[in-house]
Amino acid sequence: MSVLIKGGRVITAADDYVADIFVENERISLIGESLDLAADTVIDASGRYVLPGAVDPHTHLDMPFGGTTTIDDVESGQRAAARGGTTTHVDFCIQAPGTSFADALADWKGKAEGKQLIDMGYHIAVTDLKDGGSLEELASLPDQGITSYKLFMAYKGALMVDDETLFKTMEVAAETGALVMVHAENGDAIDVLVKKALAEGHTEPVWHARTRPPETEGEATNRAIQLARVAGCALYVVHVSCREAVEPILIAREKGWDVWGETCTQYFFVDESFLELPDFEGAKYVYTPPPRDKANQNVLWDAVRRDTLSAISTDHCAFTWSEQKAMGRDDFSKIPNGGPGLENRLHMIHHFGVREGRIGLNRMVELLCTNPAKLFGLYPRKGTIAVGSDADIVIFDPEKRHLITAGNQQSRSDYNLYEGTEVAGDVETVLLRGNVIVDFGEVVGRPGIGQFVRRARFGERLSNSKSSVSVG
Ligand code: URP
Ligand code: ZN
Ligand code: ZN
Question: Which residue has its alpha carbon closest to ligand 1 atom 2?
Answer without folding.
Answer: 338
